[in-house]
């Protein structure tokens, strides 16, 4: 990556690409993904200047939420240079990733995107901090995929898992997310450890290990917690669904609005109250069978069967039944508002129903 331009070459109109002076922006990678759209909407509501990166052209609704969009690969230094030619970045929401199922079909590509991309963005953040003399905040969605519980008996016994337990991920995605957390800690606390001119804390790294996420607006692709949202969307749209895990399978889930609220609440928390760089957040932990019962209650006539896929089952079996999110509650006041029932009744069922009406 070329060194960024100085922060203000005062001239022209100061409005971004056309002028020489760069405007300050929050960068959102993976902007066209499930979380990206929701984060951009919240930033737009708060009138925050957001600039998007995605591998694909954004749909017009998402594009309208941001000041500018750069289409390309986060591993391409040329793309990041083009971005820095126009914008000074003071906060990054790095949401781009290949999820756990897709990653197993192309592990090396997953590593290149998930770790290589994260490294590029952390470097960009640190260099922005060095140039402008202020810390760049970096929000990183991690995942329950960082956990690797060895077997079902241990999973049942373990119950709510703390942030420091069972960190032996089974998937490339989990390995990559755990590495992303370690890289974040390094860039925040130790970056260029031996340099005489080091910038103290160039990056303010904050991460949440998300459980499976249920969105009423979008269906995820390439993940292994996807059986939850897929079942609901299939039931609402009148399609039969064969669930790829056993009925007794249990992992934690939350809803997309809760996930976005958590990310933005963590972003806004005073740094001195944060005792960790990565936090679990929980929600509810239904079995796949409980999901089916709720889906059938909300959408009478829904046809859900079970056809477990051994490989994907082994991934979900290695994720904990639930997580201990007491650190998030204590440090930044995290308080989930949905129970499984209220998530279905107040958010998922009405919104998914109107989507397919
Ligand atoms: N939803 C992710 C996946 O299934 C886990 O964080 O890969």
If you had to describe this structure to a student in words, what would you say it looks like?
- The chain has 357 residues and is α/β, with parallel strands linked by helices.
- The chain has a domain at 97-211 and 254-281 and 319-337: Rossmann fold (3-Layer(aba) Sandwich), CATH 3.40.50.720.
- Helices cover 42% and strands 17% of the residues.
- It has 13 helices and 13 strands.
- It is globular and about 60 Å long.
- The termini are far apart.
- Residues 1-19 have low confidence and may be disordered.
- Bound molecules: serine.
- Serine is lined by residues 99-100, 143-145, 173, 210, 212, 223-225.
Outline of this structure?
By secondary structure, the protein is α/β, with parallel strands linked by helices. It contains 13 helices and 13 strands. The strands form four sheets. It has a seven-stranded parallel β-sheet with strand order 3-2-1-4-5-7-11, with helices on both faces.
